Structures are given as C-alpha cells and as structure tokens.
Amino acid sequence: MTTAVTTPSATKTELYRLLGTPVKGGVLVIADHASNHVPEGIDLGIPAELMNQHIAIDIGVAEVAERMMAPGTAAWLAGISRLVCDLNRDVGMPGMFPQVSDGYAIPGNRIGDEGRAARVAEYFHPYHAALESLLAETTPALIVSLHSFTPGLATCDKPRPWEIGILYNKDERAARIAIPLLEAEGLTVGDQEPYSGRVLNASMNRHAEQHDRAYLSIEIRQDQIADAAGQALWADRLTRLCRAVVSKLD
C-alpha cells in the first residue's frame, strides 16, 4: 500500500487523500487508482501479492503525485483499490467491479445487483461528490488525471512502446498543447494510446468536460515510474508540463 506524505495540509479519509492546498487558478492532480486498499468487510478472494500488481493499483502514480506538490499544486488520491470499485467508470459501466482482470478471477466481485449498488452508494458517490465540491470551491486552471499502464498485458503479448499516453474526449485544449511539448523531449507519446479517452474518460467527463474545466488525462508506462528515481524524474517533467500548459491555455 502506498504511504501518505505527512504535510500540515494533508487530509485523509478512507475514500481519498488530499495533499497540499488547492487554490483557484492552480493545478489539481487526480489519481483515481492510487491505492490498493480494501475496506474492512470486503474479501476479493485473491492472493495478497496480486494487490501490488496493476490489476489492483496504478503503480507509481501516488508517488509521482506526491513529488509534484508545491505551492499552487495539490493532489487528490483515491483511497480504495480499483478492484473494490473502479472510480474512473460510470455507474453500470462494464469493469466497475471486475470479475476477471488481465486473466485473474476476482471471485469477491460476484456480488449481484444489490452488492454493486451498495458499493456505489458507499464508495463511488461520496468520492465523486467530495471531489466535485472541492473543484467547485477552488476552480483550478488545470486538472491532471494521472494513471499508469503496463508495458504489456498477461493476456496480450503485444508490447506498448509509448512512455506516456495523452487521452481526451471532446475537449482537446490541454492535450494539443501537451503532446508536442512531450515529443520535443524525445518521448514516444501515445495520442489516445494505449487507451482512448473517447471510451475511458469517465472522471474527466464528469468533473472537467461537463463544467468546461481544462484537463490533461495522462497515462505513464509503469516501468518509467517503478522506482524513486523514475518517479522524481516524471514528477519534475509533469510539473514543467503543467506550468507550460497553463501558460498557453486561453
């Protein structure tokens, strides 16, 4: 499980950690898959070692977000595993409570309609209500939705060559600024790869696009941020990127 950074302005609940102080016109980093925590009373029925793999948590993103903390930048990190409830989904969307993930059975998610509704009520709705309240109060200049992806999947032998992917749905404002800046650093950038924001953009659709808030949806390949050196490098890179994007946004 990831370890919280101890700061005077840190707020922690079971559903999320808020690091730093959000400010109007600043940057808010959001990581919906930052934790592998399973709340008491839920048994996913899988070996403990799987909880440290990508099926349970976006490896490295919490540490990158923590290193990005500075005046004007704050981070909102989810506090439960994506296997308990995938917070970057819409209610009823396939994969919100995966019964199989990258070839691994998740027997504890065979919970039926009543069980799914209970988790939505306990975790999904309160998480997003609290996040929306924060965004409405602070009005950031840029939201950064931070995720990581595997170099490859166990169920697919096709490698993923991109160091970073930029996703978006209808609002391309920040993406079109960020992609050439990243390419100028010599990076192989996936424009809507390895995932498409037309499909996997639920949190940003809800909190950014519906409110005309500029955002970047970022996927970093896990091997790039698997250790402290990589996390520090990418935190610095993304901090510079965010400053540049904010300066160029209308």
From TrEMBL:
Pfam families xrefs: FGase (PF05013)
Top-level taxonomic group: Bacteria
Name of protein: N-formylglutamate amidohydrolase
Phylogenetic placement of the source organism: Bacteria, Pseudomonadati, Pseudomonadota, Alphaproteobacteria, Sphingomonadales
